[in-house]
Amino acid sequence: MVNRVSRSSENHYLPAHEIRKKLDSREISSSELTNDTISRISAIDGEINAVLKTTAETALESASAADRRLRGSGPEPGPLTGIPILVKDNMSTAGIETTAASRILSGYVPPFDAEVVSRLNEAGAVIVGKGNLDEFAMGSSNEHSAFGPVKNPWDTNRVPGGSSGGPAAAVAAGECAVALGSDTGGSIRQPAALCGVVGMKPTYGLVSRYGLIAFASSLDQIGPITRDVRDCADVLNVIASHDSKDSTSVKAPFKDFGAKLGESVDGMRLGVPKEYLVDGIEPGVRTAFEEAVEELRSQGATIEETSLPLTNQALAVYYIIAPSEASANLSRYDGMKYGASVADGLTTAAEVSQHTRGEMFGDEVKRRILIGTYALSAGYYDAYYKKAQQVRTLIRQEFIEAFGRFDALITPTSPSVAFEIGAKMDDPLQMYLADICTIPVNIAGLPAISVPCGMSEGLPVGLQVIGPQFGDRTVLQVAHAYEQVTNWHRSHPPL
Ligand code: GLN
Fold this sequence. Notes:
Blueprint: H1 2-9, H2 16-24, H3 30-48, E1 51-54, H4 56-70, E2 84-88, H5 115-123, E3 126-131, H6 165-172, E4 178-183, H7 189-195, E5 198-201, E6 221-226, H8 229-239, E7 269-273, H9 283-298, E8 302-306, H10 311-329, H11 349-360, H12 363-376, H13 382-405, E9 408-412, H14 428-433, H15 439-444, E10 448-456, E11 459-466, H16 472-484
Parallel strand pairs: 2-3, 2-4, 7-8, 7-9
Antiparallel strand pairs: 1-3, 4-6, 5-6, 5-10, 9-11, 10-11
Helix pairs in contact: 3-4, 8-16, 10-12, 10-13
Bound molecules: glutamine (GLN).
């Protein structure tokens, strides 16, 4: 037994494709791995708070089904068969409470699975729990969770980034090899960067949003958080699908997301938009980024500075469009149909709705609802919402034009490393600035990945690779080529 625990503990920091080899050689079973994952979460998550709930019982059932499949019964196993996975708690899981880290949804048990959850189950993956997040995915630090902040495993006085802080911290802390996050303005890539793991937002529409608790529907996209780029491609191959239940779902014009992994970047044209090296960028982030640029150049890529002047408008556009959509999406939480309800002593539906929303939504969510309602109101709609949509089109065109000259763009993922818990809580604008490098990508619906590219003050730095629409394979190719000659993705916190 002692042997088994020490043997499996070597697995805590392995990527899924290496764990999979051990499953295939029967060095370990999925049931052992799942037990080990759940014990590790209970042993260390008290310090991190990345996991809101573990689902031991259903996970062990899925694990034994995966073990049977790996031993030849049932459908052919795939890369994720038997692999433990954490799912951000804004994705619906049938029979398992799904809260979006909001008090207003506490006690809500969805009667259906999100499409991504069905896809994972079909692939034989083992869902081990639900990851913490900023309430309704609104935030960049995970401090806006109703269930307490997530701590960065590299330094527990610091934030993990947000809003997928739980999934990113869990992968970084060796609690699981793979997690799913959602990204509306950077919520996969920014926490991946701050926690030293890989995170990708696919092209808008490639992954079904069915069953994802909506924040801003024209921007939201689900994607993987993993230890390396190969795993990221493997997860995308499972979760990307055309889904008639999501009207914005598209059919990918290609099949295998990993098709270009291993291809060199020699001869590729990469652009560095100077607006992303903003004034406030930390010197350590700039240095790590510049070294990554040199690395790609030494592999034969042609790298040139370029300019995307509308980048500077992206934050303003986002903070009109995202809250506007949020104000409409969140109007369904009225204390009647789902989750919590404040009704004691109240007589009218309007009163119940008012009290439930007033008492159960957190401050950041209320701030977004107010901004969004204002931007959509008669008299302001043209000045704010309509104008923001027009600028959105221009931003998209600016990217299209840049991709006439470049195969991909490279930038830092975040202007800073993980900041201290509490540092930006009193200043929403400073918090919003944390997303300056990630937001334009959502506005234009493009694919982008963050891969670890160095350390500054003992904390991880991320390199972002942005591709044209449906350039997901190119983005993975560039990130993979970079990863092959560096070791940053292999370093992990001392937990
Ligand atoms: N931090 C951004 C926000 O608060 C992005 C969040 C996200 O991508 N879900 O809106």
